[in-house]
Every structure is written in C-alpha cells, then in structure tokens.
C-alpha cells in the first residue's frame, strides 16, 4: 500500500499528520493485514525505509507509535522521531529476521 500526502511534497518542514488521516491509514492498514496474514510486522514500512535515497515519506513526523497503538504492528515504530528499539526488537523476534539473501533480493526488486 502506498500512502503519500500531497501537501508535504514540496515542504521542508511538513505539518503534523491530522488525526483523521492517521485513523484512516490505521483502518486501511488493519484491513489489509487482516486479509493478508502473510504480511508480517517487519513488512510494514515507509518509502523512506526502502528507497531512502529518493523518497522521504512518510517523513519524520509520521506517528508510527500512534499507528502501533491503534493496532498496526510495524517495523517503522517511531516515537516522535526516536526509534523505539525495544518494540522493534519484539516485532522482529516474533516474525524472525530476514536472511542476508532475502534482504539483498528485496533491495534488487
């Protein structure tokens, strides 16, 4: 799923995400994850996690932790720009770390 807010495309300091926007993303993501259980928490990422050289969204203001509290488990768990290592470690532990070969294959896609 791709979600890119157009109002932040040209702004260096984008505004905070509106609560309605976060609620909509959470509901849509939960719906997709419920229909595709093979998508593990370590596969819930932002563009900046996989194409950091050309994409900056969802950006540093994206409320990953709020999404987590709304039932969306993901590896992009951020608390206002601070990576929450304990939460992330738990997510990876529950679904396993990808092998080096899997990581390289993913980046070559």
From TrEMBL:
Its EC number is 3.5.1.28. One of its GO terms (biological process) is peptidoglycan catabolic process. It catalyses: Hydrolyzes the link between N-acetylmuramoyl residues and L-amino acid residues in certain cell-wall glycopeptides. This is N-acetylmuramoyl-L-alanine amidase. Coiled coil: none annotated. InterPro entries: Amidase/PGRP_sf (IPR036505), Amidase_domain (IPR002502), NAMLAA_amidase_2 (IPR051206). It comes from the Bacteria. One of its GO terms (molecular function) is N-acetylmuramoyl-L-alanine amidase activity. It comes from Dyella choica. Keywords: Cell wall biogenesis/degradation, Hydrolase. One of its GO terms (cellular component) is outer membrane. Residues 13-60 form the N-acetylmuramoyl-L-alanine amidase domain. Pfam families: Amidase_2.
